[in-house]
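[step 3/7] inverse_fold.run input=structure_tokens len=149
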């Protein structure tokens, strides 16, 4: 597995957890007045979103980008009209879809893996060649012993 892909997934998991904390806290603050309850709900959202983002990397990318875009557009429009939510939702879907278009696939370090495979192949060939030579030498010694007897 490419080490950079794992690092990228872990970094994204941390970003998703932070996003989950903020979103969970803000949503629960609207519903409840208790700050400790809001922090607890935010922590639960952070853990859930972080785990989902790590487990389902591409879905996590879509989800986090869509949620962030929804709240950014809603904040920028700063109105409570009916059209704010559909516009924010469309922008969120567009941002989530653009993630799939802009995502780089996990790059294999093909040169390094090819070199490693070649080294391993060379070692295996040398080992099998040595084994064949040793077997041939044993056969020669066995024939000589039989000829002497």
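[step 3/7] decode complete -> sequence:
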């Amino acid at each position: 597995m490419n080490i950079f892909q794992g690092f990228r997934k872990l970094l994204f998991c941390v970003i998703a957890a932070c996003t989950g904390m903020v979103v969970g806290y803000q949503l629960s603050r609207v519903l409840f007045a208790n700050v400790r309850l809001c922090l607890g709900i935010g922590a639960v959202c952070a853990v859930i979103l972080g785990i989902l983002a790590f487990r389902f990397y591409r879905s996590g990318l879509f989800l986090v980008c869509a949620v962030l875009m929804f709240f950014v557009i809603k904040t920028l429009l700063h109105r409570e009209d009916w059209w704010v939510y559909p516009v924010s939702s469309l922008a969120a879907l567009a941002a989530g879809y653009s993630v799939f278009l802009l995502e780089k696939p996990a790059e294999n370090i093909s040169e390094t893996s090819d070199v490693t495979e070649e080294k391993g192949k060379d070692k295996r060939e040398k080992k099998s060649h040595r084994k064949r030579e040793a077997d041939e030498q044993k056969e020669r010694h066995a024939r000589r012993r039989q000829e002497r007897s």
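[step 4/7] annotate
The helical segments are 3-31, 35-55, 57-77, 84-102, 110-148.
Residues 3-102 form one domain.
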